[in-house]
Amino acid sequence: MRAVCWMGKQSIEVHTVPDPAILNPSDAIIRITRTAICGSDLHLYDGYIPTMESGDILGHEFMGVVEEVGSGVKKLKRGDRVVVPFTIACGNCFFCKSHLYSACDNSNPNAHIAEAAYGYSGSALYGYSHMMGGYAGGQAQFARVPFADVGPIKIENDLPDEKILFLSDIYPTGYMAAENANIQPGDTVAVWGAGPVGLFAAASAYMLGAGKVISIDRFPERLKLAEACGAFALDYSEPDLNVIEALKDLTGGNGPDSCIDAVGMEAHGETTGVYDKVKQALMMETDRPTALREVIQAVRKGGTVSIPGVYGGVLDKVNFGAAFGKGIIMKMGQTHMQRYLRPLLDRVEQGQIDPSFLITHRVGIEEVPAAYKTFRDKAEQCVKVVIDPWRLAA
């Protein structure tokens, strides 16, 4: 099969690799019909996530049709159409039974690596380093799906792939970010980043009762999509604009009730952003927490900070004194995907949201290496890239 392979920092190639096979009775093989590039894939592309190896197959947003199942799979059969969540969970450990699926104790065969870095390992992820399990990803024509009775959700409607593909990650991730923001009816919610997760967080904040959502970004096309979600757009690159002061002005001086950092470890910024870029380039800092610093500074006293943006290491100059002094609540982490698949699919089927609204680029698998660069550079007004793995040439 053809697959998108990580070959090194900023080096992505498409190769012919062996088809996946059933390794355990709980496995399924999926023939992938649509997949996508996630913003967090760019952390791999730019070399910020350790324990990648040359030849690793990328991708954790994918859906398709069941091709084969292991002898222990009871809920799926050949021919079923499924969306696969990016977190791999066993369904039987303490954390899975507590619906904390992204903290699964049993799905990561390389847990010892993550334990050395973090104390404990989270669940395994598709296509996201050997520290997170070393599983082949879904930017390919086929994928092996472990614990197939626990992860994939069966699709029994005729909605096109593009309307349901994002159940695999960014729609539930944006929704959990809004849920973690503890939104009360009429609240004001500020969202840093109008990329895919930030856009879904903005749309989800309204679903959960927000009275006003403020989206912060610097790219006009992304802010336009945020406005289409009903958000007030704040362009932080405007001359003389101070985000913290602007948010105070928009909230009667109190600050937003909830702030969501949908940017994560590769943030940009006018002053501290340059400082972080230099330190990260010199390997003196693992992450660029520019957005996180602003989020903590901006949120009102007693408010909530939600962090769906990915961070990988130790943060520098984060004002934890402000977090303590204002008594804020902070919630974060990988999405507990299996908790959200059914209720969010219901919202799509009921027409409450069409998740395909942010797709800007559709490519065949051979075009994916170039698409990574386009997406990373925000060129061609790129917001979201969807891949047809069977379209071999444009």
From TrEMBL:
Record SUPFAM superfamilies: GroES-like (SSF50129), NAD(P)-binding Rossmann-fold domains (SSF51735)
A GO MF term: oxidoreductase activity
Cofactor: Zn(2+)
Presence of the UniProt keyword Repressor in the record: no
Keywords: Metal-binding, Oxidoreductase, Zinc
Domain of life of the native organism: Bacteria
InterPro entries: ADH-like_C, ADH-like_N, ADH_Zn_CS, GroES-like_sf, NAD(P)-bd_dom_sf
Occurrences of domain Alcohol dehydrogenase-like N-terminal (ranges): 25-153
One Pfam family, short name: ADH_N
Residue ranges annotated for the Alcohol dehydrogenase-like C-terminal domain, each copy included: 196-266
Family of the protein in this entry: Belongs to the zinc-containing alcohol dehydrogenase family.
Protein name in the entry: Threonine dehydrogenase
Organism: Acidisarcina polymorpha
